[in-house]
Amino acid sequence: MRGFVALDFETATLDRYSACAVGGVVVDYLSTGEWEVSNSFFHLIRPPEIDAETGLPFFDDFNVSIHGITPEMVRDAPTFDHVWAEITQHLDDRLLLAHNTRFDMYVIRDSCSWYEITTGHHLFACSYRLAQATWPDLVTYRLDALAEQFDISLDHHNALSDAGCCALIARRAVEVAGLHTIEETAEKLGFRLGLLSEEGYKPFSNAKSGDGPGGTRRRLSDIEAIGEPSPDHPLFGKSLCFTGTLISMTRESAAQLAVNVGASAASNVSKKTDFLVVGVTDLRMVKDGSSSKMRKAVELRENGHHIEIIDEEDFLRLLT
Description:
By secondary structure, the protein is an alpha/beta fold. The chain contains ten helices and eleven strands. The protein is globular.
């Protein structure tokens, strides 16, 4: 690959599709063995959910206290779909890099799902995991701690500063390995590159293929039916989404049961959703006693889209 793009996202809420800022540093590999920063970017992003009281994008106070971005600051900012179109211009034949890809790659995946746009096909690596493998005796691998350890200037939770620090940490790991690229270093340390694509998500991992948590993570939309669904079933051809914690089973198990009878399962509520199945919601994690998916469903219903909101018991009755 010709180089990599180090990315860092900040979000407005706990929901991964609520990106409110992104920073990126574009690095090219040179034939001399050096790295060259060829570009960098920073974008404020307007999250999709609107606070009914203020008319501004909805933010959790906790998130604002972390990154300092407020609803007023992103009032006129572009939404994720427009920003992603700009970012992808830098990604051609370049690796994606982030510090804790379980967060940033999911921001991309869930945001693309929300706006019903394609993620593209991108290999990625995690500087957090590279640091763990390179310096196993450190107490912590938080970005700010590593910046202090290696005397890297960092304005923590400024997305561009975080992305630059991520790139420099990866550079240190590559130097320790005595190699030229992140890909070579990952292979030497026993990692497989992660993959973000329309076909699914594979984590950046040093586990062998099929080793459970380290293997391919199934998206609900990737679940296939066991047996032959009947077109006469009431859920046949319907699209379901789940929110909250189900009591009798996991979301994946519930999605499997739905797919077995001819339904499809999605991670986010959209205009295509027929049923939102509501489990037990931790009220500390939501606004006004309802989850973001619930608020999205109510908004769509008010705009004329037919979405039925049911509980776990109703879901189980529909299955039989």
